[in-house]
Every structure is written in C-alpha cells, then in structure tokens.
C-alpha cells in the first residue's frame, strides 16, 4: 500500500459513535420508577408490603402501629398517608371503632354429660385508642384471640358444666348473653382495660336429635297446655262478661224501678199535698163561714138585746094581740088589753134572760 495513502488513512477521523436518545430519559426516571415499585407493592402480600413500602395509608377507624427491629414503638398515627423507613420499620393498622368478633363451633358438655355445640357467638367490642400501645405491648396485634375467642370458649364451657341441658337450652338461655358479657368485661377490665365489651349475642346451641325431639314434644305439650289455659281464661272472661252484663242489666232495671217508684211517690206526695191544701182551704172557708155566721148571730143578738125596750115589747104585744083571730067577750077584756099597769107588772115578773131565750126560739 502507498505510504501516503496509509498516512491519509491514518489521519482520516472515525465517524462519531451514536448514543441512544432514550438514555437521558431513563437516567432521570429510573429513581422514580424504583420508588414507585417500592411504594406500589401488590397488596396480595401485606407483610411484604408493610416491610418494604415507604408510603402507607392508615384507613379511617384505625390507627397505625409500628415495630422497629421487632420492638413496638410508641408512635401511633392517625388515619391518612404516612411515611416510614422501608426494610427497618414494620406497620400494622389497628381498628379502634366498634367491631364484631364471631366465635364459631364451641363444643361444651352440660352438667348431665350431654355434649352440645354453640355454632356462633357474636361479641361486639372496641379497643380504646389511648390503650392501643399498652394492649399490643402485652398481648400483641391479635389481642382479641386471647380475650375474646379463647375467653368465650372458656366461659361457655364453665357455664355448661354448672348447668343441666334443660337449663342451658331453655330455662336460663335468655341469661347467657348477659352472663358472657359480664364475664368477659370483668377480666378485660382487670387485665386489659383498653378492651370494652359492648354486647354478646349467643345463638341456640345444637343438641342431639333424640333429645331435641323430646324437647320438641315437651314444647308441643306445653303449647297445648298453654292453649287450654288460654281457652279457659277466655271462657272465664266470657262468663265474667256475661255476669257483668246481667248485673248491669239488673242494676239498670232496679234503677228504672226505683225511678218509677220515686216518681209514683212524688205523685202521691203531690196528691197528698194538694189534698192537704184543699182541706186547709175548705177548713179556712168553713171557718170563715162559721165566723161570719157567728158574727151575724152575735150581731143579731146584740141587735135584739138593744130592741128589748118597753116600747118595743109593747109594740110586739100589740101586734100579737092584733093578729089574734080570737075575740074574747067579757067585762075585763078591755082592762086586759089596755091596762098598762098589768103589762108593766108582767115585765117585772119575767126575767130578761127568759125573754131573750123566747125571742131566740122564735
């Protein structure tokens, strides 16, 4: 080869190497992608997410609790977004509002040795926010397993072992709710004061079929007895109602009779008073007539007494003689008629009282 050509070839510059246009973009976005991958870990692996995530969310009704190197931290966060150190700090949400724990399949033996099974018991409880750290420090995140699930099993078995099947299934079944609530709350108040038991709902336990049929027959017989008792009560009520109606009718008739009798008595009393008034009027009228007649007679007597004068008597004597149809003949007739001296002697010899009696008889 020609040396000049070699020199020319050596001095000829190489074409520049082309770098990719996307390398600056990848360089800028690579850290953001790494952070996004660490934040947005799939939720299917919650423990992995809680360990390696930086940004986490505390849901409403919960508080955030944190562990560092296995040690529980006193840091308690409110609902919302928060940051933590990945790989070092672990996070768990703890519910602090009302929650219902459902305890299922609780076998127990009664006092008589019969095995029964409570299929479901619901416990409504709440963990107070100010006791979250203390409760989790002593009993862990699953504190409700110790003080609710396991405690319910224990209390139910204690209750069954001290009561017979009749009592557990029928007689005192309505008291189990309150007894379980009180038993749970007593121990929680003593050992885990942050846990509040709101209520307990116990379902009817499952008993062997043969015993259940006996109870059903007993219930049927009891129902028949109750029906008979209710029928008897209804019959008694009907009889009592009829009796009250009869008494009411009799009282009504008696009241009507009494009213009619009082009315008749009032009529009789009115008639009697009317008769008394008429009698009084008659007596007053007769008395008035008698008084008037007495007054008339008295006045006539007084008038006659005033008339008893010699002149009037002489007049009457003359009128009597004049009206006499007999004629007397004799020598002394004129003397008898006209002799005033004899007439005066006659009046002297006759008393005034006799003359008044004679006049009154006339």
From TrEMBL:
Pfam families according to UniProt: Band_7 (PF01145)
GO MF: cholesterol binding; ubiquitin protein ligase binding
Residues covered by region (Disordered): 1-22
PANTHER family in UniProt: ERLIN, ERLIN (ER LIPID RAFT ASSOCIATED PROTEIN) HOMOLOG
One cellular component term from this protein's GO annotations in UniProt: endoplasmic reticulum membrane
Name of protein: Band 7 domain-containing protein
UniProt organism field: Acacia crassicarpa
Major location (coarse): endoplasmic reticulum
GO-annotated biological processes: SREBP signaling pathway
Keyword terms: Endoplasmic reticulum, Glycoprotein, Membrane, Signal-anchor, Transmembrane, Transmembrane helix
Membrane-crossing residue ranges in chain numbering: 23-41
Gene3D superfamilies linked: Band 7 domain
Domain Band per the UniProt entry, residue ranges: 53-219
Family: Belongs to the band 7/mec-2 family.
């Amino acid at each position: 080869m020609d040396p000049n050509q070699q020199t020319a070839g050596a001095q000829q510059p190489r074409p520049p190497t082309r770098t990719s246009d996307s390398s600056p973009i990848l360089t800028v976005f690579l850290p953001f992608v790494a952070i996004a991958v660490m934040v947005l870990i799939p939720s299917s692996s919650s423990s992995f997410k809680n360990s390696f995530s930086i940004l986490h969310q505390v849901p409403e009704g919960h508080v955030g609790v944190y562990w560092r190197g296995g040690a529980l931290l006193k840091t308690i966060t409110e609902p919302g977004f928060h940051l933590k150190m990945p790989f070092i700090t672990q996070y768990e949400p703890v519910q602090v509002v009302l929650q219902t724990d459902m305890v299922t399949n609780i076998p127990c033996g009664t006092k008589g040795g019969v095995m029964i099974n409570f299929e479901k018991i619901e416990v409504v409880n709440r963990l107070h926010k100010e006791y979250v750290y203390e409760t989790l420090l002593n009993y862990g995140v699953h504190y409700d397993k110790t003080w609710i699930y396991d405690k319910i099993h224990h209390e139910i078995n204690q209750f069954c072992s001290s009561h017979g099947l009749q009592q557990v299934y029928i007689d005192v079944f309505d008291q189990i709710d309150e007894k379980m609530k009180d038993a749970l709350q007593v121990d929680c108040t003593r050992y885990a004061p942050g846990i509040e038991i709101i209520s307990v709902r116990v379902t009817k336990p499952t008993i062997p079929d043969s015993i259940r049929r006996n109870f059903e027959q007993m219930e049927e017989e009891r129902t028949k007895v109750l029906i008979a008792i209710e029928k008897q009560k209804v019959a008694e009520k009907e009889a009592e109602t009829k009796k009250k109606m009869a008494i009411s009718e009799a009282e009504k008739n008696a009241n009507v009779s009494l009213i009619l009798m009082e009315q008749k008595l009032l009529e009789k009393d009115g008639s009697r008073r009317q008769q008394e008034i008429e009698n009084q009027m008659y007596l007053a009228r007769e008395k008035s007539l008698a008084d008037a007649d007495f007054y008339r007679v008295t006045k006539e007597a007084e008038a006659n007494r005033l008339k008893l004068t010699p002149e009037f008597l002489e007049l009457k004597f003359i009128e009597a003689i004049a009206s006499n149809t007999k004629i007397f003949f004799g020598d002394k007739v004129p003397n008898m008629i006209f002799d005033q001296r004899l007439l005066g002697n006659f009046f002297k010899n006759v008393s005034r009282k006799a003359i008044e009696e004679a006049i009154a008889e006339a």
